[in-house]
Write a structure and sequence with these properties.
Layout lengths: L15 H13 L10 E6 L6 H17 L2 E6 L6 H8 L7 E5 L2 H8 L11 E10 L1 E5 L8 H11 L3 E4 L5 H13 L4 E4 L3 H9 L5 E5 H9 L4 E5 L26 E8 L4 H14 L3 H9 L3 E2 L4 H22 L5
Parallel strand pairs: 1-2, 1-3, 6-7, 6-8
Antiparallel strand pairs: 3-10, 4-10, 4-11, 5-8, 5-9
Helix pairs in contact: 1-2, 1-9, 4-11
């Protein structure tokens, strides 16, 4: 799978204003506006205030400027993202509806048997916008200073509890894969979302939590929890002192959450390609890159085919894990 990574080191002397002006100029050469309706809708299939919503609010204004038309955010949450995702699948492919999805897009086909859409056939891939590391943290009252300490203790005890944001989430499934590779088991305590899990591990009510770098990094920096590892391909800037599993000898365990951009399947390839180009230009803006980094997003900015290949690999991976451990949707 090929990915085109965007980094500030590759940007040379491009300034944010020049980059955005280039995007605007590129759009003006088209005879028709991107969306013929008054507004373009950026659909977030999760509640306001979550990580995907945060990304939407960061990119909506520069996208609006680049396209020269109104862009509004619609939060259509419910059923692990399937309500809003299903809504987008049913919309006309006229360039006026965009889906900003999360890692559930790759997990739900493995976990849910009654999806109201076909994940691979009902959407036009646009871009893998970025990835998010997940982090295993422990309350500091516990004796484990490193992940190796925890593995040794778990092999002896077998009853150490770990909170996650729910059964079948990427955090939960990732830990099952990690357990298999390291030869230990934890006892999972599912919560309805990561916020409650964070509160309980911070309060010492549960010894471990596995969640996104965004949700736990402030607690790690303040010393309220201790980070044992992170799962990204490289150390996140929010936690530069926390090792990755790749550094600990397991590069195959670089399992990340992610944010992707999709459109309805009937959208012409030309529109998907145009949107990919506009987004790529927007994501060269150093200020935007910095703000995305502050919420734990490592920008990828892939091509449409790379996103399609990535989603296929995610579905295959999680289908195998769900079957192997007989994980059922809650």
């Amino acid at each position: 799978m090929s990915r085109r990574f965007i980094s500030t080191a590759r940007l040379g002397l491009l300034f944010p204003a020049l980059v955005l002006a280039t995007a605007l100029e590129a759009e003006t050469v088209h005879a028709q506006p991107f969306c013929l309706e008054k507004v373009m809708r950026l659909v977030v299939p999760f509640p306001a205030g979550g990580p995907v919503d945060s990304v939407a609010r960061l990119i909506s204004e520069p996208l609006q400027q680049a396209l020269g038309q109104s862009v509004i955010i619609e939060n259509r949450s419910g059923a692990s993202g399937t309500v809003g995702t299903g809504y987008v699948a049913q919309q006309p492919g006229n360039g006026c509806t965009i889906l900003l999805s999360y890692d559930t897009h790759g997990v739900n086909p493995a976990l849910l048997t009654d999806l109201p859409y076909d994940t691979l056939k009902d959407f036009k891939p646009v871009m893998l916008l970025g990835t998010v590391s997940n982090v295993l943290v422990a309350h500091p009252s516990n004796p484990w200073m490193t992940f190796a300490d925890l593995v040794a203790a778990a092999k002896q005890k077998g009853d150490i509890a770990c909170a996650t944001g729910g059964i079948g989430t990427v955090a939960h499934l990732s830990m099952k894969v990690i357990e298999q590779n390291y030869g230990f088991q934890l006892v999972y305590v599912p919560y309805r979302g990561g916020a409650s899990a964070v509160q309980d591990v911070m309060g010492g009510h549960v010894p471990l939590m596995f969640g996104s770098v965004l949700s736990v990094s402030p607690l790690v920096r303040d010393g309220r929890v201790r980070a044992l590892f992170q799962t990204g391909t490289k150390r996140d800037k929010l936690l530069p002192n926390v090792p990755t599993l790749a550094e600990l000898g397991h590069p195959e365990l670089s399992i990340v959450s992610w944010v992707g951009i999709f459109m309805p399947a009937s959208t012409p390839d030309e529109l998907a390609t145009r949107l990919n180009g506009v987004m790529a230009a927007i994501l060269r803006d150093e200020t935007l890159l910095s703000r995305l980094g502050e919420i734990g997003i490592q920008v990828v900015a892939s091509s449409p085919p790379a996103l399609q290949s990535f989603v296929e690999s995610e579905i295959s991976r999680w289908t195998d894990v769900v079957k192997r451990y007989d994980i059922k949707s809650p």
